[in-house]
Amino acid sequence: MMGTIRLLARETLLQAKKSRFCWKLPQTCVLVVTILLLAGCATVDLDAPIPSFETGIDPNAWATIPAGEFLAGQAAEKTLIDHDYQMMITDVTVSQYTAYLTESLAAGKVKTGEYKGRKAVIGFYPGDVFHNVKHEEKIEAGEWIFIPLDDPASRFDFDGVKFTPKSGYENHPMTDVTWFGAWDYCGSNGGRLPSELEWEKAARGTDGRALPWGETMVLNQANFYANRDPFEDMSSFGSRTSPVGFYNGNTYGDYATLSNASPYGLYDMAGNVWQWTGNIYEGMHYRFMRGGSKDTYAMDLRAWVRNNATPTYFSPGVGFRCVK
Amino acid sequence: MQFIRERFAYLFNSTKGLILVAIAMIGMETTLFGMLSGPMAEMGVRDWVIKNLGMQIVQAEREGRIIILYHSIAMAVVAIETYMITSLVRMKTFYIKAVRVLITIGYILTMIFGMGFAYWGHNWALHGVYIASLSLIFFAGLLLTIGLWPWNKEYNQPDPAYASIRGFDMERAAFFTTALTTLISVLFGAVPGSFFGNGFETFLAENIIRYPEKTPMEFAVIGHLHIMLALICVMITLIIGRWLDFKGILHKIAMPLMILGAIVLSLGVWGVVTPLEPVAHMIIYVGATPSMLAALMLVIFGWDKLIRQGTANINKPGILQKFGALLNDPLRFGPLWQMVFMNFTTSGVGIFMAIRLDEIFRVWPAREERIELTGHWHVLSAIVATIILLYYGDMIGLQGKVRKLYGWAIIILSDIAFAAVTIFEMKRLGVSEATQQPLVNTVMLLIDFGLGMLLVILAMVMGWRLLDLFKSKGRWTEEIDHELAPEVK
Question: Are B235 and B149 in contact (CB under 8 A)?
Fold first, then answer.
């Protein structure tokens, strides 16, 4: 497909040159645009092979963040968190989440079914208080989507009983998980989703730095849009997730990384996937995410940057981690 | 010395010279700072520019930097519109000179010291001059508004072909109203600007759009940016109308609509910081409708005029001949076409978003909504820029093939880019995140191609004008005494 397009483009340019294309601007533009639009319709192989790397970072490890003040937000305001807490040093991986799904399905805590016309894993959520504010939507007690089962971008397989990671994605962050799915995972494992402030303190420490490692953004220190890591192909499927803790200072083949560990030793608090946080704010049903992702420019990786979506939203660029 | 004095007189004392300088300043600023984002960042150009120009980029100050960047470009655009108004609309010489001196010093200092402060470290003296320069521009606006005072009998409109009430010039009143509402709207940025800016704790409106509770200061910022851009658009519409000698029945209907639109639109936007906030959007829609209807009437008038003029020598012209006449002069067809095209890229997107906000757009993450918000107003700003460039092409007397090539290149290249931006904004309607990359690559290429080539064309024109300045009998010597009013088409 791409080869044909390239050939067509070359031929077109040659023809245009012969016909003094400078003076045939409209025709040339229409032709170029048509060819480019055709190229834009190219299909993407979502199951393209992905390089496999062992990072040496344990996704079952937790770091302790001590109580105390830290500089929060873009304006670096002194803010107190009055309790110690522990946070996972990596995002929840596909292996961890699929194991939880298999167990929960077997135990009858979740079930498969349909959610708004699509196959999904669904489970119970006790609902939120509704304040009837403009644009606010009701989140009532009931069954909500945890993950879709029919999304081609999912990184797991399901045989009706067991969930298993797709080959090569075992140690990648679990994506395509809704806020409800993240909320239940953490709850089922004796934890909860971090509040935004807990997340931010864990990411930037107490000295007001913008990024977990400091101030300067470098291509090989985090997974963000077009950072030229071994997992992306910007001419085809674009940016993909990297294994959790991949950016730890190790060299993989000829790709050398810098460590993106936060002052408390947490990895990927900038980039890779947006991370759901746990706050439920009065008057809005949106849930907030932090950290930026493989799909965003570096500006979204700054520790105070917020993104939000409905709690039913899922995406190949959204994951989570838990606190306890 | 004489050499420099003469060129200086042209560049800073004549209408066309002043416009040339402002376009060149915007071109240079856009080129330089455009290298810090988007694909240029991906290609590593951003890092190279930052390093080699010694910029001091602090992560926490990105939003502040961008706001100063937007303001410094916008001030130059406002200056260009002001030069055009003072050359097209009758006014006392004192006001013309005073307004031009103040706004020229104002926007140039705004650019130099604003960008110096934003990108090259926090020297508060630079910030002080930046603020003082913005104040100069405000004062220039105040004098312009006084100069446009429409109740002076001296400025009555005797010609019945134009909109007037017992001689009271409705077009002048429309210019006056737009200038006045712009001045008042400035305050909606200045007050919160001081509030947030003093602590350097500013924000971009698109980042807080979903928060249910906003402070009056936050509402003021959101209102300010919307109304300023809207009024810049209303003003350029009035300017183009004057250039094309808008008159007749459509003019008589359009001018009261322009006045009504500017007032109601402004009241609606100002209303967001008052208890009227819950109904402010409705007032804005009500205000936008007459403004857009007035613009539509200008388009109908202008295109009809182009067809009539182009087919004057043909007895009973056919549809193709009429179409040919319409498209014969891209510099006069273009500004009106861009106003129509704006409806696809800005108004259409905005209305669609408003209608399906909760069903579609608010189901997507905030980042997607941010792309739509920033995309549509970037396009609107750029459309104003292309309209100015098309008018400028006529101003500098482009003729024949060069005129056609320049005009069509601006129209086609910019519209390719703007259409691609619109597709990029709305891509989630048709493509998932996982499969979007080929489409993203294509539209990015089209955007870069369109805007890049546009900048190349602008650079060529600027290069030509620069070389022209070195000639003793260059075009600049003819333009030095030109005013725009006698060149009304």
Answer: no
State the residue range of the domain holding A268: 62-319
* Residue A247 · residue A221 · CB < 8 Å: yes
Please give the C-alpha separations between residue B469 and each of B20, B83, B354, B390, B403, in angstroms, as whole numbers.
12, 20, 50, 21, 21
Are A15 and A100 found together in one domain?
no
CB spacing of B211 vs A135 below 8 angstroms: no
Does the residue A294 lie in any domain? yes
Going from N- to C-terminal start, the domains of chain B cover 1-147, 160-315, 329-489
* pLDDT the model gives residue B193: 87
Closest partner CB to B365 (pick from A32, A284, A307): A307
Nearest to A40 among B212, B416, B438 (CB): B438
Burial of A161 (0-12, 13-18, 19+ CB in 10 A): exposed
Same-domain status, A88 and A19? no
Decide if A25 touches B, using CB distance below 8 A: yes
- Statement to judge: residues A10 and A76 lie in one domain: no
Per-residue confidence at A21, pLDDT binned at 50, 70, 90? very low
Q: How many CA atoms lie within 13 A of B243 on its CB side?
A: 26
In CATH terms, the fold of domain B160-315 is Four Helix Bundle (Hemerythrin (Met), subunit A) (1.20.120)
DSSP bridge pairs for A119: A114
Cβ distance A315 to B63 less than 8 Å, yes or no, reads no
The gap between the terminal CA atoms of chain A, to the nearest Å, is 50
Q: What's the count of helices (H) and strands (E) in chain B, helices before strands?
A: 18, 2
The CA-atom distances, in angstroms, between B404 and each of B300, B329, B390 are 22, 7, 11
Percent of chain A with pLDDT over 70: 91
Taking an 8 Å cut-off on Cβ atoms, the answer to whether B440 and A309 are in contact is no
Say yes or no: B41 contacts chain A, CB-CB below 8 A.
yes
| A202 assigned to some structural domain | yes
CATH number of the domain enclosing A158: 3.90.1580.10
Cross-strand partners of A158: A163
pTM: 0.91
Which pLDDT belongs to residue B354?
Answer: 80
- Strand residue runs (E) in B138-236: 164-165, 168-169
Do A158 and A271 sit in the same domain of this protein? yes
pLDDT number for residue A13? 54
pLDDT level of residue B37 (50, 70, 90 thresholds) = confident
Both A189 and A230 in one domain: the answer is yes
In this structure, the answer to whether residues A152 and A34 fall within a common structural domain is: no
A129/A189 same-domain check: yes
3-state secondary structure of B486: helix
Tell me, yes or no, whether A57 lies in a domain: no
Is the confidence at residue B158, as pLDDT, over 80? yes
The ipTM (two decimal places) reads 0.88
Residue B302: both structure tokens together: 């202008």
Phi then psi dihedrals of residue A180, to 5 deg: -65, -40
Same domain, A28 and A77: no
Question: How many domains, in total, are found in chain A?
Answer: 2
Q: Is B256 in contact with B224 (CB distance < 8 Å)?
A: no
Question: Which range, A34-43, A100-109, A228-237, B265-274, is most confident?
Answer: A100-109
A48 located within any domain:
no
Are the beta carbons of B365 and A289 separated by less than 8 Å? yes
Kind plus residue range of the DSSP H or E element containing A124: strand A118-125
pLDDT confidence of A25, banded at 50, 70, 90?
A: low
Q: How far is B190 from chain A (nearest CA, A)?
A: 20
